[in-house]
Amino acid sequence: MVFILLQIENAYRQGTELCGVAVDLVKAYNMLPRLPVAAFAKMCGIPDSILHPWISMLTQLRRHFKVQGSTGPPLLSSTGFAEGDPLSCLAMAVLNIACHHNFRSVTNHGQLLSFVDNWRALASSPEDLVSAHQAIADFARAWDLFVNSDKTVVWCTSAKGRAALRQAGFPVTLDFRELGAHLASSRRGTNFTQTDRIRALDEKWPRLHAALHGISASPLGERHFIKLRSDAMKALGLRAPGANPTIQLSLVGHAISDPQFFALQSTFRDAKFLAGHEAIAPLLTAAALDLRKVPGPCTILLQRANEVGIAWDPAKETFVDSLGPMDVWALSWPEILQRLLFTWQDRVKQIFAQRPTVEGLEGADPHLTTVVLNTLPKPARALVRDFL
User: Taking 70 as the threshold, does the pLDDT of residue 203 lie above it?
Assistant: First the structure.
């Protein structure tokens, strides 16, 4: 795919014409003829010790057809290689080699490229591309394979060439999706394949929070948060040797990426917006004075607050952190979130500062570190980030 994109770019740079066609085979693995593939595989040097038991196994396969809920009798077949079998990839590779040999023997026009059941040809003129497409079609017909005409795509870098290809009866396009990537053969600079993929994420991003939906009313053990952090690190590609998930998500990045901090701020947020001070304060006071474990959102709220050093003052009926009283129902949510962030990061620093390799971490300022990091040149920034 990259090769084709480079060829298109080079054609525009050099002012030359480049045409291309992409075809897909219909149900390629199911339609491959076994004996021709086996014969050519032998010519390619596949040893009999592999070839004979492989083909013997395939000839004993039975197929059943299910029609309107009824399964038919077993049927033998002379075509098809089992999908999921690694040797079926060998069969497809043998077919592609045969196609390349045939292409070179019947035409001197164009260049054939193949990837499994996706065959593409490049040519320097519409006439040469027509010849190349005909060679591919003839080979497919000789091997009893069917080309999916609906997925056949033809393109050209020049308007004159596109007009000639349309006149020859080909469906010409300016840009299309090819093997999951965006291929643009014109100057108009489209990127709809990429933007469609980005828009498709809109349905998935909210689902990332689905795992912690209702977390403000549900206790969750430390081991679950550890697993969620590890999964988040894998999803973000932050798997450098020695990279600690808690430090990476809570100190290097914004702590909202840390599942446990997400649970903490969600619990405070729900307490602020979903319940009033009058309803929650008495229960928080009872939970603070009575050490018995009682299921409920207030118990969970107090437990998570205490874990990061936030206490409940029964006399004043308000939370207290290292900065002083924190009236959740009087302060704005951004201020509460910022104080929770400061408290959470301070807790993380205190925990990891006890390790010999990160002594002095308790004096670090994550926000200042990010500000300074962004002032560095990009190469230095990447190098420093690897050490964080």
Answer: no
In this predicted structure, the answer to whether residue 381 has a pLDDT above a threshold of 80 is: no
Asked if residue 195 lies in contact with residue 210, where contact means CB atoms within 8 angstroms, the answer is no
Separation of alpha carbons 177 and 183, rounded Å: 6
- CA distances 184 to 133, 171, 191, Å, are 20, 15, 8
For the segment 289-304, what is each residue's pLDDT rounded down to a tens digit? 887 776 778 888 999 9
Backbone torsion region of residue 360, taken as left when φ is above 0, otherwise alpha when ψ lies between -120 and 50, otherwise beta: left
Cα–Cα distance measured from residue 361 to residue 351, given in angstroms and rounded to the nearest whole number = 9
pLDDT tens-digit profile of 305-325?
Answer: 999 999 999 999 999 999 999
Report all structural domains of the chain as residue ranges with CATH numbers, in order of start: 2-60+75-199 (3.30.70.270), 205-387 (no CATH)
Rounded Cα–Cα distance for residues 301 and 312 (Å): 10
| Per-chain mean pLDDT for the chain | 85
- Please tell me the predicted confidence (pLDDT) of residue 253: 77
Q: Are 256 and 246 in contact (CB under 8 A)?
A: no
CB neighbourhood size of 45 (10 A): 6
Q: How far apart are the first and last CA of the chain?
A: 36
Quick one: which of 193, 187, 202, 219 has its CA closest to 295? 219
User: Residue 278's pLDDT is what?
Assistant: 85
- For residue 249, give the 3-state DSSP assignment: helix
pLDDT of residue 306: 95
pLDDT above 70: residue 67: yes
The alpha helices in the chain, defined as continuous H runs, are 2-14, 28-31, 34-43, 48-59, 86-106, 126-142, 159-167, 192-200, 205-208, 222-236, 245-247, 259-274, 277-289, 297-307, 333-352, 366-375, 378-387
Q: Is 82 helix (H, G, I), strand (E, B) or coil?
A: coil
At 382 the pLDDT is: 67
Q: How far is CA 269 from the centre of its chain?
A: 31
CA distances from 326 to 18, 33, 318, 339 (A): 68, 75, 6, 9
As a three-state string, the secondary structure of 101-150 is HHHHHHCCCCEEEEECCEEEEEECCHHHHHHHHHHHHHHHHHCCCCECHH
Backbone angles phi, psi at 246, to 5 degrees: -65, -45
Structure tokens at 83: 């999908």
